[in-house]
Amino acid sequence: MFMRPTPLIALALATSSLASCGSSGPAQEPPLSEEALAAVSKQPGAPTRPLARAADDLFTREGLGETRALVVYHGGTLAVERYAPGYDADTRFVSWSMAKTVTAIMIGMLVADGQLRLDAPAPVPRWQRTGDPRAEITLRHLLQMRAGLEHTEAGDPPYHSSEVRMLFLDGRDDMADYATAQPLEAEPGERFEYSSNTTVILADIAARALTGSSDPDIRRQAVTDYLAARLFEPMGMTSVVPEFDRAGTLIGGSLIHATARDWARLGELLRNKGSYRGEQLVPRAWVEEMVTPSPKSPHYGLQTWLNRPTGEDQHPLIPARAPESAFSMIGHMGQYVFVSPAQKLTVVRLGHSDAPERRAMLQQLADLIELYPAS
């Protein structure tokens, strides 16, 4: 015989049923470690716990690769600083292609000094021979990666890459000689093609503008002294170690070493349009030129990546999640100095991430960046 349950029993059964079939709510995040909280300064310019969480995820979340260093400045004040085990504030990190932006800064200072001209034919002796079509390549073409030279950045197999051949194989002793010897594959100015070889040509032009010498030791010393006196020493960037090839050419597309703090100092210099503590180290107009889109690539300026949409799904930065005025130095395997003037923000992330990991890591980095409102 069916018996109606008492009200108390019915309530208990209903509660049990709802608990078994309903959602238990969002999963609780693990508590923040002391290390995560200690990485955030007392006045970070954003809510402390969300900032500590976003930073912690860069180091701990799976699928992002290995974050080795994170330094965030907001409004000129250190907001976040953290390192993975085995790395610290004194560790020099290799730039990879972040060096390209340093090379562009050096070229800009030489233009300001009157030693180079932006829209004149690039002063490469090999190209000045009668009838050589490469004589139409300007300094601006090189800076905007639209010289038209037959340079292949990535190859399959790797030794088909012009960069690999220049850095490690037949071009390694005199990289500029190798890079300038390549023929045209497009009209100068007509096509964007990212190329580390192109930046080495710029570094060679700088060395010849400073010395007029082919002596490797003279070239190496002149570039080292110029960068130190005009850029690194005034900013207190004492950790910087640039590399040169045997011909004395700065490997300006790939190999400059510095601490995460010093990479942040360079980002801050660009955020402040070349000014450091009231001293204009790099002409303001040159920094503005560096972050002006090329006519052939809206996401690239002068050796600097821009956070501007291209109309394509794949993008090296985060145009959907940060202001279009933001820009970045970007290096191989996930080196970033991301600068957002509208947010008064400089973010340095250094580490090791493959292509899929970089895409995921950038979205995590965007979670941190979005904690800072644009003004």
Automatic annotation (TrEMBL):
Residue span, Beta-lactamase-related domain: 69-360
Pfam families recorded: Beta-lactamase (PF00144)
Keywords: Signal
Signal peptide: 1-19
Gene3D superfamilies cross-referenced by the UniProt entry: DD-peptidase/beta-lactamase superfamily
UniProt keyword Signal present: yes
Entry protein name: Beta-lactamase
